[in-house]
Each structure stands twice: as structure tokens, then as C-alpha cells.
Write a structure and sequence with these properties.
- With 198 residues, this protein is an alpha+beta fold.
- The protein has a single domain, classed as Jelly Rolls (Sandwich), CATH 2.60.120.10.
- It is built from four helices and 13 strands.
Length: 198
């Protein structure tokens, strides 16, 4: 696993074994994860999302603590996966990083608690993501993925298809003004507590 430019986010490009029967790769391996991240991953929920070309989901996040860490991969098709630093006080606050996930490279993205997550389907796609906490509506929030201040470089050849909820989500500045964003300090403290407990 390799760290991305935003603290708390990594990308994993697994080794793929191919023969006349097909292909095999390890989607997740706890020892490798523990060695790279320095902590284990507690699986509380696994989600599978089917999206038509142009679907844009996110930017989603959960309040910290406990937040919701995610380990994301694309098992068919291709998506542009985004990690967005929405932690107030972070040195990279408001920055984002994109990784193409597809069924050829089998890349996976891990984002720790407090980071925002979004993806756009570059073709009809199926995304699977493992979550450290179950879905809890009272702790779930969104930021508009078309926020001009974030200036995310979504593919220009695709018209984004958003849910009504995501289209009505506040901008990053509005979410910050309303006190809806996690703080870098709280997220760092929570991660340190996970390192202590393994």
C-alpha cells in the first residue's frame, strides 16, 4: 500500500495472478494492511453499489468519532474515485486526490475516518467498499461534489447524475460555517486511539 498526498489515505495495487482459468488477486489482507497503516481494519459493513455511466456519488462522510473508514474497489467497469480532505485545521484542508479504480488493475483505496469520499462511474460499474462502522443516518453528511471552490476535475465528457440528496448538499464552506465538518485534531486523536487498541 502506498500513501496518497492526503494524510490518512492509501492506494493498494494488488498482484494479479492470471492463468488459463482466469485471474485471482487478494482484495484485502489484514497483515499487509496492518503493516502499511499501523492498525487493523474492523469490518462492520460491506456495501456493493451498481452505477450507470455518469453516476456521481458523494462527497460523503461521517462525524468523528467514530467516523467511518472505507476500503474501496471497483469489481466491474471503471470509476474515478476521490478522497477529499474536509478536516478543519488539516494542512491539506479542501484538497482532493483522484484514483482510477477498475476491474483491470484491481486497485483499492483506503480512506481513514474524517475524510470525504466520492466517485464517478466512467462506465457502467460495480463498486464494493468495506466500512469500519455501519450506516447511521444521524452521523452521515454530504458535501456537494460540484462545489466550485473544490474545483474537482470530473470528466468533462460525462454529464453528472446525482441523487437529490447529493445535489442539495451544502458546499464545503457552508458545511464549515454550520459546524458540520470533522476537525483534524479530533480525527488524529481518534486514529491514535485505534493505534493503541490495534
Amino acid at each position: 500500500m502506498q500513501p496518497l498526498g492526503i494524510e490518512g489515505a492509501w492506494v493498494n495495487t494488488p498482484k494479479v495472478f492470471t492463468d488459463n482459468r482466469g485471474r485471482f488477486h487478494e482484495l484485502f489482507q489484514s497483515g499487509m494492511f496492518q503493516d502499511a497503516i499501523g492498525q487493523g481494519f474492523h469490518l462492520a459493513q460491506a456495501n456493493c453499489s451498481r452505477s450507470v455511466r455518469g453516476t456521481l456519488r458523494g462527497i460523503h462522510y461521517a462525524s468523528v468519532p467514530p467516523g467511518q473508514a472505507k476500503y474501496v474497489t471497483c469489481v466491474s467497469g471503471a470509476v474515478l474515485d476521490l478522497v477529499v480532505d474536509i478536516r478543519t485545521g488539516s494542512p491539506t484542508f479542501g484538497k482532493w486526490e483522484a484514483v482510477r479504480l477498475d476491474h483491470t488493475t484491481h486497485r483499492c483505496v483506503y480512506l481513514s475516518e474524517g475524510l470525504g469520499h466520492a466517485f464517478m462511474a466512467l462506465e457502467d460499474s460495480t463498486v464494493v467498499y468495506l466500512c469500519s462502522q455501519g450506516y447511521a443516518p444521524q452521523r452521515e453528511y454530504a458535501i456537494n461534489p460540484l462545489d466550485p471552490t473544490l474545483a474537482i476535475a470530473w470528466p468533462e465528457d460525462l454529464a453528472p447524475v446525482l441523487s437529490d440528496k447529493d445535489a442539495a448538499a451544502p458546499t464545503l464552506k457552508e458545511a464549515q460555517r454550520r459546524g458540520l465538518l470533522p476537525s483534524y485534531e479530533d480525527c488524529s486523536a481518534y486514529r491514535r486511539s485505534l493505534l493503541r487498541t490495534g
